[in-house]
Amino acid sequence: MYRVKIFVLLLCVSLSFQCSEKKAEHSSVEKYRPGYHFTPPIGWMNDPNGMFFYKKEYHLFYQYYPDSTVWGPMHWGHAVSNDLVSWKHLPIALYPDSLGYIFSGSAVVDIENTSGFGSAENPPIVAIFTHHNMERERAGDFFSQCQSIAYSNDGGYTWNKYAHNPVLDNPGLKDFRDPKVFWFSPQKKWIMSLAVGDHINFYSSKNLKEWGLESEFGHTFGWHGGVWECPDLFPLVDMDTQKTYWVLLVSINPGAPKGGSATQYFVGNFDGKTFTALSAPSKTKWLDAGRDNYAGVTWGNIPESDGRKIFFGWMSNWKYSQVVPTEGWRSSMTIPRTLHIKQRGGEPILISQPVQEIETMREKAISVPSQEIESRMNISSCSQIDITILKEKNKDFIFSIGNNKEEKISFTFTDTSLYFDRKQSGIIDFQADFADTNALHLDRSVSTITLFLDKTSVEAFFNDGELVMTETFFPTEPFHFIEFLDTHSVKNITITPLRSPFEAKHKK
């Protein structure tokens, strides 16, 4: 009974998403909870799973262990939203069973009832996920992972596991997981992208129950410092040429270039059987240049009238995700982002931009022209900060965000590089490499910067999303000012406080 009361208390607090410094005397459990990023009510969270849109609601599922703040027996947590920023926590959707833990996967709206689980009038929602048998893994058995399904007849709120699971047996591979499924309408079949060790397998099915191998990709392409995970294959129209490309997201852990986890992507073509990348095998492109955006995938069943490809990522890194200094709960998601293709240097690249729904959180903006910019300016610890710069050649542009305890994060722009430094950001001793500087090569100058600051994280969008960096940190007091080493390179700055989604929803 006591535990139930604690759960309800934490749930109410998480739904409020309070972001004001006036709440600074919260309990230690809430100290690092962000203001507007999604977090679990209690316990451990990692990969977003099974995201789909149906009947005006965005459904989010995620890897969840409610009984601890470190990874354990995986469930699918569940939340819904009608605006992508304010979320309602729901009961756990899928629990571990005799076949194993419920690992990552996806969910589809089976409009044509190909599975037979519903009807044309009430199409079923079908979740496709990896069953992971820990006893087999501990015994060294390479058959510990298989793919299974569950279905819902009430729009995704309650679930029944298929009586004849698994639907895709393991052929004897240690890493065989994270199915991402979509309907390929030209050939009227479902396509599954599945992470298999250090490459991706593509399978097809007519009914979501019986699957056949179509092709493989990645043996000689991309980054191979670790295990490939959480694939996502989808089409995007080039903003410049109007040509349709196919994009394949692949997360990798460990061994990413900056340590631990990261997500690479490939642009190419898909014919219903084979994905063909346009880039050279050795060339790797990264979705996010920061260290804290992993295992992200996109929402399914977005209406054609909307047309967006909306992405959500886990805002952490496996190098330190289980030891960061939060209490009672652990991990956040990124803000939702729209993905686009555009041309740069004669080749298609993936760009990321915040979803427009974030505008509902904005308070009154303060815009300051260059002649009025001060070296130190006050901000809220939950803010959107837009900066236009005119960097002088052979002169570094440096700014930091900090507090009066001399804790800060800093950005340094040279002619060819960007350095993000969090070694003075507050608590950094929980992992040996956390404070390392993130150094990036810039193949073009940065002119616009948009920062989404939320107490313990920053998501930086450079040049309208051509380059994105996501980083977390843990100051002992909220950051409340931005400071420029030299203001001459700042053309203008706009500072917009962001109120919590709870407040935004009820204060229109």
Describe the structure.
- This protein is mostly beta strands and 508 residues long.
- It has 3 helices and 34 strands.
- It has helices at 2-16, 134-138, 501-505, and strands at 43-54, 57-65, 75-81, 88-94, 101-109, 125-132, 145-152, 160-161, 176-184, 189-196, 199-205, 212-217, 227-237, 244-253, 262-270, 275-277, 285-286, 294-298, 310-314, 329-330, 337-344, 347-354, 366-369, 376-378, 382-389, 397-402, 408-413, 417-421, 438-441, 448-454, 457-462, 467-472, 481-484, 490-497.
- The strands form 7 sheets. The chain has a 6-stranded antiparallel beta sheet, with no helix packed on it.
- The longest helix is centred in the N-terminal third of the chain and has 15 residues, at 2-16.
For the structure shown, list the relevant keywords.
508 residues; mainly beta; 6-stranded antiparallel sheet; disordered N terminus; disordered C terminus
SSE inventory with pairings:
Layout: H1 2-16, E1 43-54, E2 57-65, E3 75-81, E4 88-94, E5 101-109, E6 125-132, H2 134-138, E7 145-152, E8 160-161, E9 176-184, E10 189-196, E11 199-205, E12 212-217, E13 227-237, E14 244-253, E15 262-270, E16 275-277, E17 285-286, E18 294-298, E19 310-314, E20 329-330, E21 337-344, E22 347-354, E23 366-369, E24 376-378, E25 382-389, E26 397-402, E27 408-413, E28 417-421, E29 438-441, E30 448-454, E31 457-462, E32 467-472, E33 481-484, E34 490-497, H3 501-505
Parallel strand pairs: 1-20
Antiparallel strand pairs: 1-2, 2-3, 3-4, 5-6, 6-7, 7-8, 9-10, 10-11, 11-12, 13-14, 14-15, 15-16, 15-17, 18-19, 19-21, 21-22, 23-34, 24-33, 25-30, 25-34, 26-27, 26-33, 27-28, 28-29, 30-31, 31-32
